[in-house]
Specification:
There is one protein chain. This protein has 145 residues and is an all-alpha fold. It has one domain (2-144). The chain has 8 helices and no strands. The chain has helices spanning 2-8, 23-28, 40-51, 70-81, 84-99, 104-108, 110-115, 117-144. Helix 3 crosses helix 5. The longest helix has 28 residues, at 117-144. It is globular, with a radius of gyration of 16 Å. It starts with a helix and ends with a helix.
């Protein structure tokens, strides 16, 4: 199911993150923001993209450490939600598009949802758990501070 999702992102300019960068570029943009848990890779990418031209390759990735259960998806995304507002504050409109559950790339691949109904159902459940847990993390962190 995660491969089903990741394959949709091949042509998505929002769901990308710089993978290789020169040290001087890394230092020039301030490296990773250690205050962020959620979106630190997007944040870094966005800052690099503002100052530098970025090349693109035809990406293929193997994602290690995939979620093993819905409980794990909820736990991790609740944790991420705690700094999601900081990420959004730093990255404004682009950041909002990067984290939105509604993405143009899904519409581009709408036929895949019909071709793979079981994967589509799993994808929907995954997204509901992911975004609900993230929203709860945002809510709890907002109420605490």
């Amino acid at each position: 199911m995660r491969k089903f999702e990741r394959d949709m992102y091949d042509s998505d300019d929002l769901n990308v993150a710089v993978r290789f960068v020169r040290k001087d570029t890394f230092l020039d943009v301030g490296g990773f923001d250690t205050n962020l848990i959620y979106g630190e890779d997007y944040d870094f990418h966005n800052r690099v993209a503002k100052k530098y031209r970025i090349g693109r390759i035809n990406p293929r990735e193997t994602h290690l450490g995939e979620y093993k259960s819905l409980k794990e998806i909820a736990r991790v995304n609740y944790y991420y939600g705690k700094t999601a507002l900081l990420f959004l504050k730093k990255n404004s409109a682009r950041g909002l598009r990067q984290v939105s559950p509604i993405r143009k790339v899904y519409l581009k691949h709408y036929k895949d949802f019909f071709r793979h109904p079981y994967l589509s159902a799993g994808f929907l459940v995954y997204q509901i758990v992911r975004y609900s847990a993230g929203a709860l993390g945002i809510l709890v962190s907002t109420l605490r501070y």
